[in-house]
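Problem 12. The chain below contains 393 residues. Write out its predicted structure in token notation.
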Amino acid sequence: MFREFRELVAGAGAEIVAEVLQRRPEPDPATLIGKGKIEEISATAQSAQATLILFDHDLTPTQLRNLERALPARVVDRTQLILDIFARHARSREGHLQVELAQLEYMLPRLAGRGRAMSQLGGGIGTRGPGETQLETDRRKIQRRLLQLKKDLEGVRRVRAQQRQRRSAVPVPTIALVGYTNAGKSTLFNRLTDAQVLASSRMFSTLDPKLRALVLPSRRKVLLSDTVGFISNLPHTLINAFRATLEEVEKAEVLLHMQDFSSPHREQQKEEVEKVLSELGALDKPILQILNKVDLLGAEERRLLSDESVVAISARTGEGIDQLLTLVDRALTSDPVVEEKFSVPQREGGVLAALDAGALILKREFSGDSVDLTVAGPASLLGRYRQYRDEKW
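Solution.
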């Protein structure tokens, strides 16, 4: 997965000037890597004039402090790198709140020895007296800010809950797109909904949840949600901080698990996504497995796509989209599609227009002043016009 880490580094706007690899049976509790490797990294960083040393591993507070003392440049671990990328890509107020919360929760246990660097955090907090150290001041500032962020995010959750409650008055199911980062979720979202959300090959280009209406082949209307991409070893601080965003996944009726079929690490990425879904308690939902980017495969690889439990598509070219929408239609259990026969007076133009717009007209015949219809559509819609049902049906 070295390519993934390189993509993370590029997504953070950094340039790689050298790479060092170490294999050892178990990490050093004090520094993660061995003493000799520290000396090698130090020499390499000085020779390349590096200003930052990145580790593709999470560092404990102790390991981070020891490495910063031993190395000639600032040290950043995997979690901090991901947090930096999230901070770059957050656009909405909610996104900024979630990123800041995750950053501060990461920072709090790592303050020791770094008090001076934290002196610019938040202001307006009184001190206990001249004997208080900078570290204690910073810790108090962070804890105060954490409480405020959690309060603000709780407000976001309440607003979302109210929006969902209003939506539940009219039965409109939600479908959520989930998957590994850069699997093509935003590209599919744009194709299905004509939205213009950013679809980028950069990791975590989507942080803020997007919700758009989608009409299925049965004429049922659903809401499609685009969510943040997952990644291997996704920090728990991020899962907790982005709980408000991921609530769309928890509340969705059906999940569309997007996978990059051209990736050599697809199975591993699939497991990572399912791990996060398990933490969210969402694995018991209907999940459609979608293999994306089939346009990048050769003829021989395409012949292997005979598994009926998955649907192969290209979000970029549109291949397989019709089949996907048909499967989504079948997977929905709320407001099921039913077939009815109606006899509607021709003067009831509003009723006829509503049935035309919201259901499939399988058969239409004119009989005197009435229109006899065979209709397939959402039970909620057809139930509104039960007085026009053909009793002979």
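Discussion. The longest strand covers residues 337-345. Students who got a different answer should revisit the alignment rule from Section 12.3.
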